[in-house]
Amino acid sequence: MNINFEIMKKIKFRTFAAVIFTCLVTVACVQDDDFTIPSSIGNEENENLTNLLSRIEAGEVQLITIDQLKAQFISDDEATEITSEIAVKGYVSSSDATGNFYKEFFIQDAAEDATSAIKISLNQVDSYNQFNMGREVYIYLKDLYLGEANGGDGVYTIGGAMNSDGEVEALTANEVPIYLFRSENSYTIVPKAVSALSSNDVGIFVTLNDVEFTTSGVGQPYVSPTDDYDTQRTIQRCTGFNYSTFLMETSAFASFKNEILPSGGGSISGIVSKDYYGDNLVLALNTSDDVLMDGSRCELLDINDFTEIISEDFQSAIHNTNLDFPGWTNFAEEGGWVWRERVYSGNGYTEFSTYNSPDDVNIAWLISPGVDLDAQENEFLNFKMAQHHLQSDLNTAEVFISTNFDGSNVLGATWIPVYANLPSQSNSWYQFVDSGLIDLSSYSGTLHVAFKVTGSGTDQTLDGAYQLDDFTILGQQ
């Protein structure tokens, strides 16, 4: 009873402190062109940030992006010590106010339309009282470390030291005021709308629409009473004829751990992260208030109502030759290498790899034959892709569609990016991943689908490969 009473006191105190802090932030945060740090955050912090900003303006310290910072991670075996006079700026995307994050927070590169994020490990609990969600934060990086807090998890992390295993260790309480500085500005973090979890979005606050908990999870608490540390629950969405799924992970120390999972459908917002060993992408909630599932559940489409408009399984591929299929355009935007035909264990597919290419940059397009979207309705695109030897987020694959491609002038056409479930470093090599059904029904005229891959033959971290198979467009007559 005494232990429970103490916990209740702490929770009540934290809730009361959070209310008071929110009121203070609302009064103190001024959005204007005057970059004066309010005295309410402390004279020392005011002076340190003012000094850093002056050094940045004088050119003594270079302000870099989060992506540029990640590129300085040299080895997967141990953390990288930062020895340059550099700093990075970001916006806090996570919050430990509910206890679902512990001694860490993420910053992303923009309050809206974020493209990259990074984790800060610090020996401090209740960091939301200082680094609240949406707070603009500067980090002076010289003498800090960049790497992984859990070796092999693939989550870029800033810390104050490196342990004997080569992992990043947390900034100490004494180091925090020397390296981490919040500005006067706090912004509303607008979640990035995504259709699935991606390793490119780790640390970013995202939202997924038209989702629901699996029927086996409905009625269960966020955290199982038998789990000591955390619980993973499966979330699904209808992707046409099948469900796509992803994992939500909740700490056993989260204040909402005993709340019951909703039975309806709707949206969920949280931080893209990794499980402890880095094997799976997971969604981590800042608060259960970001689960809005009071609508109806989705219904799958019936495959029997659809027919194939175009299909290519590449089974007629001739191994180790440049792809030359009727109607397909194989184009090198940069470098001399193009998509190749491959056959392995009787399966034909096409692949773009930059391994052993003499070119610093290789960009290759593979474009499908045109499809008349006015001849039927409710068209959907589906394909499978795999990867091998990917080592960097800069080794990318992208999917586009165009309704004005003339069949030859690739760069002169208007290409619209479409979201698809694509393989990443977290997938096993050569494991084909289903793209999900991509809705094309809002387009008209003749449509082409393009696959664009970027890599390098001279940079070994960018010489990975992407493989494509089972390309299909379906429709209803």
Describe this protein's structure.
By secondary structure, the chain is mostly beta strands. It has three domains: 2-186, Beta Barrel (OB fold (Dihydrolipoamide Acetyltransferase, E2P)), CATH 2.40.50; 192-295, Beta Barrel (OB fold (Dihydrolipoamide Acetyltransferase, E2P)); 303-476, Jelly Rolls (Sandwich). It has helices spanning 2-28, 43-57, 66-70, 176-179; strands at residues 62-64, 80-81, 86-92, 104-108, 117-121, 135-140, 145-147, 157-159, 161-162, 168-169, 180-186, 192-193, 205-213, 230-238, 243-251, 265-274, 281-284, 291-295, 307-312, 321-322, 329-334, 340-344, 347-353, 362-367, 371-372, 377-388, 397-402, 416-417, 433-434, 438-439, 446-455, 465-476. Strands 1, 2, 3, 4, 5, 6, 7, 8 and 11 form a nine-stranded mixed sheet that branches. Strands 19, 20, 22, 23, 26, 29, 30 and 32 form an eight-stranded antiparallel sheet that branches. A hairpin with a 2-residue loop joins strand 22 (340-344) and strand 23 (347-353). The N and C termini lie far apart (68 Å). Mean pLDDT is 89; it is low at 1-39.
